Amino acid sequence: MLSTPDILRRTGGKAVKSIVFDQATIAAKVAELGARITAAYPDGELLVLGLLKGSFIFLSDLVRTIERPIQVDFLVASSYGDGKVSSGTVRLLYDPETRLEGKHILLVEDIIDTGKTLQRLMALLDTRRPESLSICALLDKQLATECRPEVRFVGFRAPAAFLVGYGLDHAENYRHLPFIADLE
Ligand code: IMP
Ligand code: MG
Fold first, then answer.
1. 37 contact partners, CB below 8 Å, separation of at least 6
2. How far away, in angstroms, is 51 Cα from ligand 2 center?
3. Could you name the CATH architecture of 23-161?
4. CA–CA separation, 133 and 104 (whole Å)
5. Residue 54 CB-half CA count within 13 A
């Protein structure tokens, strides 16, 4: 556990409202997810696709707990529209160079809010004819929206707060915090 001065040094003096998941809790959950993923894919090629930028820390910890051969690549997606309301389209700013066809694809996301981005990404990736296509999310706010994709591997149910740390940002800040906090 980090002390308050340790936290304030990292945030530049901004106090967090509360620590929602500490380092040890996150590490235990990531190990559990890695074991479940290892068991879920006994055969075939597995490509783990990290959705940037938010998943970068989770992905790097997660892949080291998976005890089978995998490939790792990334996706950068952008939804575009009028800036306020999503247009219902997703565009890939970085498209993985790795072939998807015939492989098990595991899409790794930091947090699912409405699930809209992932729902559209799943439809797009499905056209590449993978053997299977599943989602692993560290956090899920579990909002009941009609477009929610099925999330096969979930770490934590997240409170309806704005969370930062362990990859999650507020205007690119706080991604480096080793815990997940409610910024308020
Ligand atoms: P969705 O398409 O509504 O599910 O939005 C998911 C994306 O919104 C995530 O990949 C995050 O980048 C961002 N997001 C949602 N909730 C939070 C949060 O509490 N903190 C930081 N980013 C969030
Ligand atoms: Mg994100």
1. 62, 66, 106, 136, 153
2. 7
3. 3-Layer(aba) Sandwich (3.40)
4. 6
5. 20
Kindly state if the Cβ of 134 falls inside 6 Å of ligand 1.
no
User: Among candidates 128, 132, 147, 141, which has minimal Cα distance to 75?
Assistant: 128
CA–CA dist 166, 47 (Å, integer):
22
Please report, for the chain, the start and end positions of each structural domain, with discontinuous segments joined by +.
23-161
Amino acid 79 reads S
Evaluate whether 158 touches 17 at the Cβ level (below 8 Å).
Answer: no
Q: CA 26 to CA 158: how far, in whole Å?
A: 13
| pLDDT tens, N- to C-terminus, the chain (184 residues) | 899 999 999 999 998 999 999 999 999 999 999 999 999 999 999 999 999 999 999 999 999 999 999 999 999 988 654 444 555 678 888 989 899 999 999 999 999 988 888 988 999 999 999 999 999 999 999 877 777 889 999 999 999 999 999 999 999 999 999 999 998 8
CA of 161, closest atom in ligand 1: 19
> Is the overall model pTM greater than 0.90, yes or no?
yes
Asked if 74 and 98 touch (Cβ cutoff 8 Å), the reply is no
